[in-house]
Design brief:
By secondary structure, the protein is of the alpha/beta class. The chain has 5 helices and 8 strands, in the order αβααβαβββββαβ.
Length: 178
């Protein structure tokens, strides 16, 4: 009698485990597909690059506002050499960038452009939870470049808000071309 009870108990655990694993597999597949779509630049991913990581700190308020205004949009931030950023922007792998004016390339109707004065500000080093602070805080003239219509218009929202926020931060700052 104990053997039958034990056998039924083990069978119940296997059945429950099979049911739970099916649900877990479906959940993991859905999440993996969603992550791939976003990483590939789906409609709900805004990809922004900075040639100077300190510029990311200068638009942190902008990023916060964009995330609140578009909660269904994932925001990915990158940093690289300006020429690499420009190539990725033209290749459709980025939606917006802040790069030095000299490397911004030729004007095209596909891209929006605006000169902005960027005052470097502290950024947080994630793993150490330490601020990375600029030694020089003079404003530097850079160019905000974005792909028109990218990410269902979120790129334009970011560009408009970033230009506005950077203009407010600049105040009476000295304009110095990089």
């Amino acid at each position: 009698m104990q053997d039958i009870g034990l056998l039924l108990g083990v069978a119940a655990v296997f059945a429950f485990g099979w049911f739970v694993m099916k649900r877990l597999d479906a959940f993991l597949k859905r999440n993996a597909q969603e992550i791939q779509e976003r990483a590939a630049g789906g409609a709900h991913a805004l990809r922004i690059a900075f040639s100077d990581p300190m510029a990311a700190g200068a638009v942190s308020r902008t990023l916060e506002l964009i995330c609140k205004a578009h909660p269904d949009t994932a925001v990915y931030l990158y940093t690289a050499d300006a020429n690499i950023i420009l190539a990725r922007l033209h290749g459709g792998q980025l939606d917006a960038a802040i790069i030095p004016c000299e490397t911004a390339g030729e004007k095209s109707p596909q891209y929006g452009r605006e000169d902005v004065l960027v005052r470097p500000s502290a950024v947080l080093v994630k793993d150490a939870a330490l601020p990375l602070c600029p030694l020089e805080t003079k404003g530097v003239l850079q160019q905000l470049v974005w792909v028109k219509g990218a990410c269902n218009g979120v790129a334009e929202d970011f560009a408009a808000q970033a230009a506005h926020d950077l203009q407010q931060q600049a105040g009476n700052a000295c304009w110095e071309k990089v």
